[in-house]
Amino acid sequence: MNRDTGFPRADAEADFLRARRRQVLSRLAKWLRGEPDDVNIMLPFKEVVDALGYVSERRIGTRVIKLDSIVGSVDRGRDFDRRFRPTSGRVRERWERLALAARRGESIPPIEVYRIGDLHFIIDGHHRVSVAHAMGVSAIEADIVEVRTKLDPSGIRYRGDLIVKDYRRLFLERVPLTGQSRASVVFSDAWDYSRLGEHVEAWGFRLMQDEGVFSDRATIAKRWYEEEYEPVVAMMRQADLIGDRTEAEAYLWVACERYRLIRTHRWDDEVIEAVRSRKR
Questions:
Q1: Helices assigned H by DSSP within the chain
Q2: What number of other Cβ atoms are within 10 A of residue 151's Cβ?
Q3: I need a surface site. Which of 47, 56, 82, 257 has the fewest CB within 10 A?
Q4: How does pLDDT run across 165-221, given as a tens digit for each residue?
Q5: What are phi and psi of 5, to 5 degrees?
């Protein structure tokens, strides 16, 4: 606990003022560094689930979880920032009452959270988490409901990251890749997932026209990856055209350049050389 003077009530009041001061200083530092607005905002649970795609949920009981794993909330209130520091004096009375109980060693009930992957979102217990952070505690008891989603939540740090996840989920519904192929197609720009989705659907349409046979989305996705994506990426790697981009980013770039420069859907040395010349 911070600065224990032996007077629990006075210490609890000091804890709150210290937490408020840290929140103000953090907000000022963010502004001076020019960081995005969502850096200190809790992740909203519903938006995360919508972006990742809800599958199912189950209650798994009470566990001890790390405070740092709590990144968001079901309630989109603005009483606390991302580190659960109070953003105003509105929560002071209840906050100090909980801090006083904690300093006196009284029993504090578990918080309630949703779990997605390794991330936790508070259902009930915002004040308890805030007090625990202020007192330097690293873990807390929680009643957990685990939520399964279509996409893995790894890589989500800020609210802006949800846009990329949402577009990736939509892309994978249009182009249902699996296994390694699913993992290898990655973009940093959310809009590229939409562009590639259109590209693969057009590729699939041309394939069905050429063969005169209908193919479902899963078949098109598999054949596009094996017959188009992998060979092109291999050629690009040999031609040193990938650079510091992901393979998917490099593929999308060269596919667009190919059609813009020489109006063709084929791949050969002439196409690669034309794109290489354009790069220079």
A1: 8-33, 45-52, 92-103, 126-134, 161-174, 179-184, 190-211, 217-223, 230-238, 247-262, 269-279
A2: 19
A3: 56
A4: 999 999 999 999 999 999 999 998 989 999 999 999 999 999 999 999 999 999 999
A5: -90, -10
Helix/strand/coil for 64: strand
Model confidence at 100: pLDDT above 70: yes
Rg, the chain, Cα only: 25
Torsion of CA 109, 115, 119, 123, to 10 degrees: -50
Q: Average pLDDT, whole number, for the chain? A: 84
Q: What is the rounded CA–CA span in Å between residue 259 and residue 153?
A: 35
Beta pairing, strands 119-124 & 54-66:
unpaired
| Number of C-beta neighbours around residue 162 at 10 A | 20
Residue entry with tokens 């740090």: 157
Q: How many angstroms separate the Cα of 221 from the Cα of each of 174, 193, 200, 224, 230?
A: 9, 14, 7, 5, 12
Parallel/antiparallel/unpaired status of strands 70-73 and 119-124: parallel
Predicted TM-score of the model (pTM): 0.69
DSSP strand pairing (43-44 vs 70-73): parallel
Query: How many CB atoms are located within 10 Å of the residue 171 CB?
Result: 22
Is residue 61 within 8 Å of residue 143, measured between CB atoms? yes
Question: Tell me, what's the pLDDT at 1?
Answer: 46
Tokens of 100: 């006083």
CA-CA distances (angstroms) from residue 198 to 178, 188, 252?
18, 18, 11
pLDDT at residue 263 greater than cutoff 60: no
Tokens of 190: 């959310």
